[in-house]
Amino acid sequence: MALDVHVTSGTYPTERFGEVPLVDAVATHDAESGRYAIYAVSRAVDAPTELVIDLAELGADATGLTVSARTLSDPDLDAANTLENPDRVSLAEAPITRDGSTLRIELPAVSWTEILLG
Questions:
Q1: Which of 20, 44, 69, 100 could connect to 96 by a Cys-Cys bridge, CB 3.0–4.6 Å?
Q2: pLDDT tens, position by position, 66-94
Q3: What's the whole-model pTM score?
Q4: What is the domain range of residue 63?
């Protein structure tokens, strides 16, 4: 089931879409397994962005959930996987901290991050 996600971030101007958020996210919950997944994208091109996730609305459901994160990014914005280097850009474990019902993770510039709770 898709969850309501409220993201507040800086923006950048585009000709076609006007002001676009630097960070966007979606989240899902699998009622059968009790697992949550959050997917975040950072469009910032020149600096990392801190993502703060408030799990308070999950209440007791969030207590005791394990948390892991993986990020797809590369400092070279033109980096690509090739036959010679097929793993040049790949998912890597990302450090994420938890303080009570708050998660914090640094999203690298131009990145995609998966956060799993379960």
A1: 69
A2: 999 999 999 999 999 999 999 999 999 99
A3: 0.90
A4: 2-76+90-117
